[in-house]
Write a structure and sequence with these properties.
293 residues, alpha+beta, 11 helices
Length: 293
């Protein structure tokens, strides 16, 4: 069978066990004007098990982003004129207004979870979720669980509560797939490993040069990559981690401030106190006395 140029499935009768949910377009327009769903909205979603001869051709772009998660079999997609193989465990992220096509392999048909996304925050969320059309999420099981939840919510009803629940799960889904299992050698992977190192060596003195050496990069290159990915410098990020742990210890223990300072990497309690006040606008003891929760 050939792909449909209008964007319809090549198999009109569908697939045994499939699920398919498409919001009426007047409802989409209304949801995009409401708090909770105007930032991110799932407009369409579905599940196609062993979708033999499934294919889509969209030469005329659509306004929604298209997300595919392959959980079995294999297929292909073409985005921006470049063809990519799609295998089980991989996700495809196709930006809005992008001509594309995708299709299942005939002798190894894929099982596909999919959704379309719209909303005002979408342009900022997609690049963070996937700079390339096809990648392998590090948390594959979590990604599949979330898109299953999205399809489930979309199948409940068309209430604002269900649309909001699906949007919340979609937001979480995009966060989960932002880290690829195959990104270890990429700039993002280098930064992710550095963040993990800082988190697990909170009380140790770790310099930017040491982290750059571990990443096999120059200090200046590593520092620039880290700031671009995380949004802060290495020192600022380390301070954030230490202060978060200090707040936790102040809230959950009776340890003296000097002991807490040492626990989070500040052997000089006076320097810790100055840093704490600079970040929080109050002293550690006054913070401990505040009512919380």
């Amino acid at each position: 069978m050939i792909l449909s140029e209008c964007g319809a499935m090549t198999v009109e009768e569908g697939f045994p066990g499939q699920r398919l949910h498409v919001l009426p377009r007047p409802l989409v327009r209304a949801a995009l004007s409401r708090p909770g769903t105007r930032s991110l909205l799932v407009t369409d979603s579905g599940y196609f098990p062993r979708a033999k001869a499934h294919g889509i051709l969209r030469e005329k772009p659509i306004r929604e982003a298209v997300i595919l998660v392959c959980t079995g079999g294999s297929g292909w997609c073409t985005v921006g004129g470049i063809e990519h193989t799609v295998r089980a465990g991989q996700a495809v992220v196709i930006p809005p207004e992008t001509p594309h096509s995708y299709w299942s392999k005939l002798d190894d048909p894929w099982t596909l979870w999919w959704m379309h996304l719209d909303g005002s925050e979408l342009p900022d969320l997609l690049p963070a979720a996937s700079p390339a059309p096809v990648h392998t999420p590090a948390e594959q099981v979590r990604a599949v669980t979330l898109i299953e939840e999205i399809v489930e919510q979309m199948g409940c009803d068309e209430s604002q509560a269900s649309l909001f629940a699906a949007a919340a799960a979609a937001w979480h889904f995009l966060a989960v797939i932002s880290t690829s299992a195959d990104s270890a050698g990429t700039p993002d992977g280098v930064v992710d490993r550095a963040r993990e190192y800082l988190q697990s060596h909170l009380a140790e003195r770790t310099s930017v040069t040491e982290l750059a050496t571990l990443a096999r990069l120059s200090t200046s290159h590593f520092a620039a990559l880290f700031r671009k990915q995380v949004g802060t410098s290495v020192l600022q990020y380390q301070t954030q981690l230490r202060m978060a742990r200090a707040r936790e210890l102040l809230d959950t223990t009776e340890l003296p401030v000097a002991r807490i300072a040492a626990e989070v990497g500040y052997p000089d309690a006076f320097y810790f106190s100055r840093q704490f006040r600079r970040v929080h606008g109050t002293t550690a003891l006054r913070y401990r006395a505040l009512g919380k929760g």
